[in-house]
Amino acid sequence: MRVNRILAAISAATLLAGVAHTQDGVMGPSRATVSVAESEAYGTHLVNEGGVPLFLFVVEDEAEAASGPMTRGVRERAGSCTGGCREAWWPLTADGVEATEGVDGDRLYVADGDVRTHVLYDGWPLYEPAPGSEFADAPYSAHGLEAHGGRWYLVASGGGPVRSDTAER
Fold first, then answer.
1. Residue 143 CB partners (closer than 8 Å, separation 6+)
2. Is 119 exposed, middle or buried (0-12, 13-18, 19+ CB in 10 A)?
């Protein structure tokens, strides 16, 4: 009986060694892989290891952009998604990052945030639609969306927001 408990504890520890907690206590990878995807409507943009598009949050009010828990290496106009915003958007968090072909590894890094490590690209914190949110099944519908005090954009592979005629709504 004691041996079974020890084996179960070792198995659990081994399983948890490769993961880190996300914002809501759900287990996630300790390393994030960021790739590129091509879309006819939006061009080349960043996606997570599951192919889900990644977003950045631009605060349109400069005074608002300067407030909130931010870290060094983050662009001034980058928004901080907190409170009710976290119900729709989760920050991409990891202990380390890997850039695949088409992603500039020099622009991809992890910064210490207010609680966890947040993955950034070219100074923009990366977000993904939260499971169960209105954008989880149709993430591209969030591109250009104005919500939570700013605007949400897909992340261009060259850095910054994807700009398109359909972005403003």
1. 42, 53, 55, 152, 153, 154, 162, 164, 166, 167
2. buried
What is the pLDDT of the chain when averaged over all its residues? Answer: 77
Residue 67: both structure tokens together: 């407030």
Exposure of 101 by Cβ count < 10 A (0-12 exposed, 13-18 middle, 19+ buried)? exposed
Q: Mind listing the pLDDT tens digit for each residue in 114-164?
A: 556 889 999 899 999 999 999 999 999 999 999 988 899 999 999 889 987
**Which tokens belong to 119?**
């993955």
